[in-house]
Amino acid sequence: MGKWRYGVILDAGSSGTRVYIYRWLNSARALQDADATALKSLPKLETKKRWTLKINPGISTFGERPTQVGPEHLQELLDHALDIVPQDQVSDTPIFLMATAGMRLLPEIQQSALLHEVCAYARANTKFSLPDCDLHIQVIPGETEGLYGWIAANYLLGGFDSPEEHAHGKNHHTYGFLDMGGASAQIAFAPNATEAEKHANDLKLLRMRTINGQASEYKVFTTTWLGFGVNQARQRYVDALMEATYTHDAKELLDPCLPSGLKTTLKGLEIDEGTKVGNEPILMGTGLFDECLRQTYPLLDKDAPCADQPCLLHGQHVPAIDFDVNHFVGVSEYWHTTHEVFEMAHKDQSYDFTAYQKMVKDFCSETWGDIEEGVADGKWGKKVSAKVAQEVCFKASWLINVLHDGIGIPRVGIEKSAHVPGYNGTKEVLSHAKSKGFLDPFQAVNKIDGTEVSWTLGKMVLYAAGQVPTSNDALAVGFGSNTGPYTANGLPADFQFAGSNSNPVPVGEEDNWSEAADELLEKAQGRKTPGLLLFMLLFLGLMYFFRKRDRRLRLMSKISAFRRSRRPGSPRKGGRSFFGGKLFGRTSGNYERVDDAEAAEFELGDVSEGSEDNEHSDSSEGSRVGRSSGLATPKLNVVNFDTGNGHYYEKGEVGLGLAGSGLPNAMDRSGLLIRTESRDRLGTPNLQMLGAGRRSRTGSPTRMKSPLTTPLEED
């Protein structure tokens, strides 16, 4: 094993699936090279833009023909991953497929059949590490997705760094996370000390581990509002319009959330002059944004009974948010709706309620004809289509209501005025994040220092942390209920392991020589100049003659892989050559929720342009046109389903913890819990140190220095 470890994760969203590939130093090598700061840091993950690939449609479209999901959907994603991961690393590289939106709509039998087929196909056609299908191939609930997003955001912002460098006050140094897709919205944050003590049974205990093996714990609240994503909210809004104003005599419903002069069907299809609509009612836009705000407010369901105080939306319990210390980043729709349409004037600016509402109001007051001309002329940015422009007034009103009347983000004092001469919100927030912490109650982001804020990153950070050997018999890496009950091993009964499956392997001199060759070959892919190639030949020639026979063979295989490429689209089985995909890699994209639209990018750092294709991912329910909800109504209904092999699947959405419910814990399978012999081994970390197999699982976190995940240099 070389110095790098790799991980592959497939985000199976409602409209497509995106494969992400990450790598980090082998624990032994990281420990060997670490300075005093790095020792107290989480493993440093790396990625490249071209290591990501998105394909359409979503995996849920194979619900009635599961046997086709492999050759027609998975194979291209597996090929891409096998092009990137070195051939001799494949067997030690874990692969995960985690489904979010779309799959939740399918009947349990179809879900089970699809998941089984995915695992069987991956095992038959690759050598990726896939020891436990129930752990690696699953449908995750929104709460788990929110927790992974919280990990990713804090990892990138530095919230896991030394507390004194990110002190928000009241002994608080982490950041909150907001996510919104097409069907649901998630929130995850660590309450202040008073609220954490008061609502201890509502929190999740998260454990990770730093390079030096030290453990740390975080207590996080996370929940999801089902039916509160933009597409489901829009559907509820149209239903309310129908109920309030529709009559057989008057078939045109006045819609203040559509631009004036625009006519659409109830499903949002534009009606032109010659379009025949039959007897179906139509929506006629009036472009009255203030009225749109007023009519979308009731959708928050603020008056719903609250059985467990306090509540925010729909009677759903959330501990009180202290905005003095709880500073939130918002991704997906929080980013696209605040920045995408206003790319030209707003891209470099941080979110400011007053400035944003004025821009939206000005936009929505224009006639549809003028808006269409503006779209054609690129007035609002190159990524704004007529469909995006059609939807922005409703989406903006919904986002403003959710943020300020729903969650309670303050409307004033959020950010310095965007009109202050010389003020650049992007640079201001970056300076905060790298010094004393980003201090605004809310900021929409797409990337942080060039890395997309994706829940998949959070999952892989947790996995990588679980590979670090413990130095003090710390408990396993993962998360579970904060207040028990506990197992004999001292873990929460519903503890969901990180899934780490390999022990670190010492790196010796022979590995160092081979790694140097690997790095030269990798750099050569984008710098194929005669001078560099000549240097490489001389260097590799020396290595060849001074290495042992097995090392020579390994080196020759890599040189051969560097020279050849695979014909695009040809089938490949099993392992892949080291360099096949590195020379002919596919394009990549930015994080949202997998869909076909594109978005501008905002970083807590420099603003950069992303790929024109593979632009978004679908972390949960999707946030663009055509996505469907993972839940018909915004309620938490839990029904466990036994497939007959001990594997429980959820129906609808399930919370992170069901301790004491009397039901089998749904998160055992739709979360991270595994039921194998390795679970017992995980509860006894010492066995890992005794060489108890190569696929061990360990873990626990840190509050100390955490390096930012940064993309590898694009050559």
Automatic annotation (TrEMBL):
<keyword id="KW-0472">Membrane</keyword>
<keyword id="KW-1133">Transmembrane helix</keyword>
<protein>
    <recommendedName>
        <fullName>Golgi apyrase</fullName>
    </recommendedName>
</protein>
<feature type="region of interest" description="Disordered">
    <location>
        <begin position="684"/>
        <end position="715"/>
    </location>
</feature>
<dbReference type="GO" id="GO:0045134">
    <property type="term" value="F:UDP phosphatase activity"/>
</dbReference>
<feature type="transmembrane region" description="Helical">
    <location>
        <begin position="529"/>
        <end position="546"/>
    </location>
</feature>
<dbReference type="GO" id="GO:0017111">
    <property type="term" value="F:ribonucleoside triphosphate phosphatase activity"/>
</dbReference>
<dbReference type="Pfam" id="PF01150">
    <property type="entry name" value="GDA1_CD39"/>
</dbReference>
<dbReference type="GO" id="GO:0005524">
    <property type="term" value="F:ATP binding"/>
</dbReference>
<dbReference type="InterPro" id="IPR000407">
    <property type="entry name" value="GDA1_CD39_NTPase"/>
</dbReference>
<feature type="active site" description="Proton acceptor">
    <location>
        <position position="145"/>
    </location>
</feature>
<dbReference type="GO" id="GO:0046036">
    <property type="term" value="P:CTP metabolic process"/>
</dbReference>
<keyword id="KW-0378">Hydrolase</keyword>
<dbReference type="GO" id="GO:0006256">
    <property type="term" value="P:UDP catabolic process"/>
</dbReference>
<dbReference type="GO" id="GO:0004382">
    <property type="term" value="F:GDP phosphatase activity"/>
</dbReference>
<keyword id="KW-0067">ATP-binding</keyword>
<dbReference type="GO" id="GO:0016020">
    <property type="term" value="C:membrane"/>
</dbReference>
<feature type="compositionally biased region" description="Polar residues">
    <location>
        <begin position="698"/>
        <end position="709"/>
    </location>
</feature>
<dbReference type="GO" id="GO:0005794">
    <property type="term" value="C:Golgi apparatus"/>
</dbReference>
<feature type="compositionally biased region" description="Acidic residues">
    <location>
        <begin position="603"/>
        <end position="612"/>
    </location>
</feature>
<comment type="similarity">
    <text>Belongs to the GDA1/CD39 NTPase family.</text>
</comment>
<feature type="region of interest" description="Disordered">
    <location>
        <begin position="603"/>
        <end position="631"/>
    </location>
</feature>
<keyword id="KW-0547">Nucleotide-binding</keyword>
<feature type="binding site">
    <location>
        <begin position="182"/>
        <end position="186"/>
    </location>
    <ligand>
        <name>ATP</name>
    </ligand>
</feature>
<keyword id="KW-0812">Transmembrane</keyword>
